[in-house]
């Protein structure tokens, strides 16, 4: 039996923590597609098979959208209920959250719309009263106990069943999409545990969001559903196209922003994003958003809790405070780069709960806080932030003029200032703990608080000093000039942009959230300013910093390689190293090959004509060699250690009584990428980035000199940037 005639199981697959060969995967898919197309002309069944193959991608997108939308709806509803459970319980049914519990009640008043007899606080249930210091202490204790219970369950489940479920998952997804393999990271257990512990972690009141982890959840759905279709199950490059679309789905259900999701995938996480993937991402994000809208998790027909609409136009002079918010966001974004190991989750939860409870703005969930900060105050709003002096307002007017702030507004500003300091400090500690934790919402909360404070300041300044030169002409008395909620929205965008370095996708997500196209310019100004400021202070966004700290082999496409080095300066072997390990096309036995595999740790070996000539024939991967030799020993008669190994097309006649030869030409890459030793390194780096290579062979006058792997390039880049080259841990 000839190994060329029958594919060997396992050949062409990859080991864990290795990089895929994009060129090989793409050519495999082209061959498969060519075969299906040629067969489709032969029979009706083959034609049906060809149509099914073409349609399978769209069907897969539909399934990912439906599954991700359903999971996101479940997470939203559960997190809302469990967050309210820390404060009390509904007597009509314990499964109702506070808002749903009081919906059907006829005894709610307008001022106290969240108080109804059906909803009991823990103090009321345990000691029978809602007033006085004992009731406050009882509610305080129950709040802390529930928070500790939720966070303990979250960290225990993650540690016991799915260690990969911690964090936001976006840095790892970026690395996986660049071609790296982390088995189990997008598996069934990770999906189940991440979904459950995400609800627990958000409900515990820790300063984290569910939006980042929803991208991980959607990618898990995509990876699991890929196994239903052979062309995605067997091809790592095709699977990464699906995962790019799944990342778009994750943002679509997190923010109710399908277009923003597609742009997020394109701008922030994807490595290879062909036009076909763009269309499919768009379709999948649409299906997911529709599914979430059908579930209606917040009961307001919106996809997110903090949807808001503004109606007042902004003035050109307001760009100055908007840019100031951008600068604040950029500076805040660079304070993130401390990465904390396994901190005691319970200690952080206890501190968070104890400090958060007395302040109503830190006690509520972060999404509800952002919703209140974005809110444009109307006459009927009962929020402290809307407690203005309405003496001069006519009830019939739709637009409310700028009004003097009441006492409650100043109280709220003090509480928000304390909340801002608390959120900035506690978020840095929380991110990096071993629970699912997203950065989007805490970053937006920090920016929204800063923006709302600045907005109220500007509003009061315009009211009391409307005769100043900067307000004259556009802010007359009795006009509605300043919208503090808009400042909160711009601040949220600035801080999120500073942390993640997103620009285009961020602006689109924010205007999909608010439905306000006319506010694109303020958002663009803040997003660009925050990116420029953050880049000036530190070049890396939070995801790039995480990738570097974990030692993943990720070649950043945004970084420019500007040093004048040549391929010969980076290639191995160096002058002091032993010669390059190579296989010859016809001069080795099975034992020689097995000895070379045992004695080295390389991922693959160049094949040459002979040791003397060093003329290159091809390249063969270590894993394929090992699998093929083991398979031949089991299934081919007479293959022993002394059998000759041939990588040639024709096997010469063997002497009588010699064992049968082993033909391995079928597993050899006959067109490995080669460059000459005088090729500039910036060109080599570009080739690696654009083609997704694992290795490139270096030749001189046609003779093999050495090899450059992706790891060599990453080490070289690290060395140039004065970082430790040994921090690159994987191949």
From TrEMBL:
Superkingdom of source: Eukaryota
InterPro entries assigned: CBS_dom (IPR000644), CBS_dom_sf (IPR046342), Cl-channel_core (IPR014743), ClC (IPR001807)
A GO cellular component annotation in the UniProt record: synaptic vesicle
Regions that span the bilayer: 55-75, 140-165, 214-230, 242-266, 278-295, 316-333, 412-433, 439-458
Membrane topology: Multi-pass membrane protein
CDD domains, per database record: CBS_pair_voltage-gated_CLC_euk_bac, ClC_3_like
Predominant place of localization: membrane
GO MF term set: antiporter activity; ATP binding; voltage-gated chloride channel activity
Keyword Cell division part of the UniProt annotation: no
Sequence ranges assigned to domain CBS in this UniProt record: 571-635, 668-725
Pfam families named in the record: CBS, Voltage_CLC
Record's signal peptide: none
UniProt-annotated location(s): Endosome membrane; Membrane
UniProt keyword terms in alphabetical order: Antiport, ATP-binding, CBS domain, Chloride, Endosome, Ion transport, Membrane, Nucleotide-binding, Repeat, Transmembrane, Transmembrane helix, Transport
Family per record: Belongs to the chloride channel (TC 2.A.49) family.
Protein name: Chloride channel protein
Lineage, top ranks: Eukaryota, Metazoa, Chordata, Craniata, Vertebrata
Gene designation: CLCN5
């Amino acid at each position: 039996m000839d190994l060329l005639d029958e594919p060997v199981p396992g050949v062409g697959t990859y080991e864990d923590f290795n990089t895929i060969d994009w060129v090989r995967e793409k050519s495999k898919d082209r061959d498969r597609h060519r075969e299906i197309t040629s067969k489709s002309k032969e029979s009706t069944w083959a034609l049906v098979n060809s149509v099914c193959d073409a349609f399978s991608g769209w069907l897969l997108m539909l399934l990912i959208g439906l599954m991700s939308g359903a999971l996101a709806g479940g997470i939203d509803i559960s997190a809302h209920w469990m967050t309210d459970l820390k404060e009390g319980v509904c007597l009509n049914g314990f499964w109702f959250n506070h808002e749903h519990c009081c919906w059907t009640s006829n005894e709610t008043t307008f001022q106290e719309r969240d108080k109804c007899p059906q909803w009991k606080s823990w103090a009321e249930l345990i000691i029978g009263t809602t007033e006085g210091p004992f009731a406050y202490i009882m509610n305080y204790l129950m709040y802390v106990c529930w928070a500790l219970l939720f966070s303990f369950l979250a960290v225990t489940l993650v540690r016991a069943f799915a260690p990969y479920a911690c964090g936001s998952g976006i840095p790892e997804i970026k690395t996986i999409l660049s071609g790296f393999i982390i088995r189990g990271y997008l598996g069934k257990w990770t999906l189940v545990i991440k979904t459950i512990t995400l609800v627990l972690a958000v409900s515990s009141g820790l300063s984290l969001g569910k939006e980042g982890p929803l991208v991980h959840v959607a990618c898990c759905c995509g990876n699991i559903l890929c196994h239903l279709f052979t062309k995605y199950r067997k091809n790592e490059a095709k699977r990464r196209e699906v995962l790019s679309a799944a990342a778009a789905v994750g943002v679509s259900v997190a923010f109710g922003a399908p277009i923003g999701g597609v742009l997020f995938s394109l701008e922030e996480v994807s490595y290879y994003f062909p036009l076909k993937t763009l269309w499919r991402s768009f379709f999948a994000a649409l299906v997911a958003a529709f599914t979430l809208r059908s579930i209606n998790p917040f009961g307001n027909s919106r996809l997110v809790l903090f949807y808001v609409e503004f109606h007042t136009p902004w003035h050109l002079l307001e760009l100055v405070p908007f840019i100031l918010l951008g600068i604040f966001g950029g500076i805040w974004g660079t304070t993130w780069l401390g990465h904390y190991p396994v901190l005691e989750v319970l200690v952080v939860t206890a501190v968070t709960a104890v400090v958060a409870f007395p302040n109503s703005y830190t006690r509520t969930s972060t999404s509800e806080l952002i919703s209140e900060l974005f809110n444009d105050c109307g006459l009927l709003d009962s929020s402290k932030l809307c407690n203005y002096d309405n003496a001069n307002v006519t009830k019939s007017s739709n637009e409310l003029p700028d009004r003097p702030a009441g006492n409650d507004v100043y109280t709220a500003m003090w509480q928000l200032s304390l909340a801002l300091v608390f959120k900035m400090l506690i978020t840095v500690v929380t991110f990096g703990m071993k629970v699912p934790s997203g950065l989007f919402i805490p970053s937006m909360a920090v920016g929204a608080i800063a923006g709302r404070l600045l907005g109220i300041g500007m509003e009061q300044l315009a009211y009391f000093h409307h005769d100043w030169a900067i307000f004259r002409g556009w802010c007359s008395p009795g006009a509605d000039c300043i919208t503090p909620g808009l400042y909160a929205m711009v601040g949220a965008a600035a801080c999120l942009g500073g942390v993640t370095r997103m620009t285009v996708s961020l602006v689109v997500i924010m205007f999909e959230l608010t439905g306000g196209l006319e506010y694109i310019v303020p958002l663009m100004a803040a997003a660009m300013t925050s990116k420029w400021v953050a880049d000036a202070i530190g070049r890396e966004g939070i995801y790039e910093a995480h990738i570097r700290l974990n030692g993943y082999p990720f070649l950043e496409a945004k970084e420019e390689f500007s040093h004048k080095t040549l391929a010969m300066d980076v290639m191995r072997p160096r002058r002091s190293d032993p010669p390059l390990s190579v296989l010859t096309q016809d001069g080795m036995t099975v034992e020689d090959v097995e000895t070379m595999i045992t004695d080295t740790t390389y991922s693959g070996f160049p094949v040459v004509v002979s040791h003397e000539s060093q003329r290159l024939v091809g390249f063969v991967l270590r894993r394929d060699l090992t699998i093929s030799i083991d398979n031949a020993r089991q299934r081919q008669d007479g293959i022993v250690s002394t059998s000759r190994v041939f990588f040639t097309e024709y096997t010469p006649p063997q002497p009588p009584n010699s064992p049968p030869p082993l033909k391995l030409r079928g597993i050899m890459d006959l067109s490995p990428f080669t460059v000459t030793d005088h090729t500039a390194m910036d060109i080599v780096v570009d080739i690696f980035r654009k083609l997704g290579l694992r290795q490139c062979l270096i030749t001189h006058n046609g003779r093999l000199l050495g090899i450059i792997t992706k790891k060599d390039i990453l080490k070289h880049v690290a060395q140039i940037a004065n970082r430790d080259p040994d921090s690159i841990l994987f191949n």
